[in-house]
Amino acid sequence: MRPIAAFTVILAVIAVVTSEAAGLVAGQVERTGRVNSPGPDWTEAYHKNGLVIFTKDITEGRRVIAVSEVEVPPEAVFNVLVDFEHYREFMPYVKESEVLSRTGDNEMVTYARIAPPFISERDYPLKVRLTRRSAAGDGTPKDSAFKVEWIALPEAKPEVEGVVRIKLNEGSWLVEPVDDGRHTRLTYTLLTDPGGLIPDFVFNLSTTVAIPELFDAVRKRAVRATTGRN
Q1: Beta bridge partners of 173
Q2: Domain assignment present for 32
Q3: Which of 101, 104, 159, 187 is deepest in the core (most CB within 10 A)?
Q4: DSSP bridge partners of 52
Q5: pTM recorded for the entire structure
Q6: Which residue has the higher pLDDT, 49 or 21?
Q7: Do residues 187 and 22 touch, judged by C-beta distance below 8 A?
């Protein structure tokens, strides 16, 4: 058993490794799809079907950086990521999701409760910020990049008896155009500690199963919204 961030990715949106780390990896994704390591102290934990995942265990928990490409435009992917009220319909393990409050169009407080296999339920209120910018070109929609960033806000909602409250959850989704805006480079970062004691096999599944499931759920939802197919 280990009290570290075994359940990193199923906390989808459920996350900041730091903005600098996300930018570093995003900048190292070549047109060939190859992704360079963020640094010598990071481990390439997964590389399959175009998804590359790096992990780094630290005292506070686990840091994760995951990068892949999605065959739809960035705005379609961004719309999926910010559809917080409907996460339970398509995000892995999410049982409840809602927006608790909004400050304008770009800041909000969200809440999600998850039921991961083998361990007790977890929940996490988050303070979320949305940004949109020109990636580098003429500022047209095909050139737009998006970012979803969040930090834990555990006091935003009373704790539920029997549900473990996640108190460290910082991360981001970076959504960038590739192929002249037809496709998306998607970078996910997370720093979290899910609390409690996590069995070793769940720790391993968090990387090899949960993160790929997360990316696949986002991809399928975005493709369906854009083309009507899975």
Answers
A1: 148, 188
A2: no
A3: 187
A4: 47, 67
A5: 0.82
A6: 49
A7: yes
